[in-house]
Specification:
The complex is a heterodimer of chains A (about 110) and B (about 110).
Chain A (H helix, E strand, L loop, with lengths): L3 E4 L2 E5 L4 E7 L4 E9 L5 E8 L4 E4 L2 E6 L4 E6 L8 E9 L6 E2 L3 E6 L1
Parallel strand pairs in A: 2-11
Antiparallel strand pairs in A: 1-3, 3-8, 4-5, 4-9, 6-7, 7-8, 9-10, 9-11
Chain B lengths: L4 E3 L2 E4 L5 E6 L6 E8 L3 E9 L2 E4 L8 E7 L2 E6 L8 E8 L8 E2 L3 E5 L1
The chains are: A mainly beta (about 110), B mainly beta (about 110).
């Protein structure tokens, strides 16, 4: 069974800092890994998707890396802003499965 | 931007009542997923459809939950009878077939069973 862990569970940083969110998964046989953002009372917004053959993906101030063999991914946020405050979820699609397996999320607070 | 649309956004009802949640997937998407989010369990898959056919509903309590796709533009998740432990946020997601395709999520239905 695929287990996905995110550390830390919560993180507070002052505005302008660069930060890294971590995600680890137990089964390295995956098709892809997706990072999502969830605002309170809202759905999930897809931020980045990394295919299993890729090492990283970038979108604006966000950079996601994937080390499939070690079962790890990181989400790097540069020059954090108060608007980045949200819960960040990583999810993997295991080979042979159709659904996503989610981590429990990291709740990020960026302090103005 | 195309979006997955879920209705209702919020539902409060008494135990024993029937609850129906609806989802309109993004036009052209042929896969639909129902997930449930709780504080204790996080996000878990309930059901999965491809080309309107149910392929995986192993995450769903069969005695009270049912999921259908009457047509390509509508997916429904029904609970009958509802119980307090069903209180959660229910998300619908859609996508295209293929190992490398992302899933797109709706805003969810926040369900409270009293």
């Amino acid at each position: 069974k695929q287990e996905v862990t995110q550390i830390p569970a919560a993180l507070s940083v002052p505005e302008g800092e660069n930060l890294v969110l971590n995600c680890s998964f137990t089964d390295s046989a995956i098709y892809n890994l997706q990072w999502f953002r969830q605002d309170p009372g809202k759905g999930l917004t897809s931020l980045l998707l990394i295919q299993s053959s890729q090492r990283e993906q970038t979108s604006g101030r966000l950079n996601a890396s994937l080390d499939k063999s070690s079962g790890r991914s990181t989400l790097y946020i540069a020059a954090s802003q108060p608007g980045d405050s949200a819960t960040y979820l990583c999810a993997v699609r295991r080979e042979g499965a159709n659904n996503l397996f989610f981590g429990t999320g990291t709740r990020l607070t960026v302090i103005p | 931007d195309a979006r997955v649309t879920q209705t209702p956004r919020h539902k409060v009802t008494e135990m024993g009542q029937e609850v129906t949640m609806r989802c309109q997937p993004i036009l052209g998407h042929n896969t639909v997923f129902w997930y449930r989010q709780t504080m204790m369990q996080g996000l878990e898959l309930l059901a999965y459809f491809r080309n309107r056919a149910p392929l995986d509903d192993s995450g769903m309590p069969k005695d009270r939950f049912s999921a259908e796709m009457p047509d390509a533009t509508l997916a429904t998740l029904k609970i009958q009878p509802s119980e307090p432990r069903d209180s959660a946020v229910y998300f619908c997601a859609s996508g295209l077939t293929g190992e490398y395709q992302p899933q797109h999520f709706g805003d969810g239905t926040r369900l409270s069973i009293l």
